[in-house]
Amino acid sequence: MIHAVRYPSPLVHGTLLGRRKRFFADVRLDGGEVVVALCANTGSLRGVIAPGQRVRLSRAANPERKVPWTWEQARVGRTWVGVNTAVPNPAVEEALRAGLVPLASGRGVVRREVPFGREGSRVDFVVEGDGRPPLFLEVKNVSMAEGRRALFPDSVTDRGRKHLRELASEVRAGAEAAVLFFVHRAGCREFGPADAVDPAYGRALRWAARQGVRLVAHRAVLDARGVRLGPEIPVDLSPLRR
Predict the structure, then answer these.
(1) H or E element that contains 161
(2) In whole angstroms, what is the distance from residue 201 CA to residue 161 CA?
(3) What is the pLDDT of residue 240?
(4) For residue range 139-174, what is the model confidence (pLDDT) as tens digits?
(5) CB of 56 within 8 A of CB of 12?
(6) Is residue 6 within a helix (H) or strand (E), and if so which, with residue range?
(7) ∠ at Cα 190 (189, 194), nearest 5°?
(8) Which fold has domain 88-233?
(9) pTM of the model
(10) Dihedral in degrees, nearest 10, Cα atoms 60, 63, 64, 65
(11) Architecture of domain 5-81
(12) Could you state, in order of their start, the residue ranges of all structural domains in the chain?
């Protein structure tokens, strides 16, 4: 498999002992050594992590990094789930530049972290070209799922609602805008809002869609070597039936 984002080293297996301060995880490697790993995901990781589960870590290429290990994946049932939120944007950027994102097809100019909106934000990407209006694109990492439906967010996100307001403003100003939900796990067949976690975000997402903000979801393809953007899956804004 060709990887858009390669891990800095082959992943090492271990067992999660616990997470602390959201930024760190204690892991017992299969060789017996207990190490501290950086957790780049500050969300709740609801439904993803539990002490005693199998995890995969990468080791930093820089030998002088204070915390050499990074927590990359967690095993949930038979599925490996990506927990590193630093991965999706580079994977999406490579896919955009390679013309592999249908949403942005035909546009070859990709800019990252562009200031926009009235609230001091930066949008993940602006994609331009082909004589069309610029596309403002925000990427969201999705790790939570129920059954075959991927869900976002896994905790209340005021920032996420702010981004939706700003994207809708760009649409009103004549640009195009979209949210790409990066489903960082295999096995999901569709995406929807996690109304049970943050009903306000669910309402905001449906409102943004009515304003013309496009919503797309792509399932990631990941293994022990790296991650790439995979196939698009349907977005379903209807409430999840339990």
Answers:
(1) helix 158-172
(2) 6
(3) 74
(4) 999 999 999 999 999 999 999 999 999 999 999 999
(5) yes
(6) strand 5-6
(7) 130
(8) Trna Endonuclease; Chain: A, domain 1 (3.40.1350)
(9) 0.94
(10) 10
(11) Beta Barrel (2.40)
(12) 5-81, 88-233
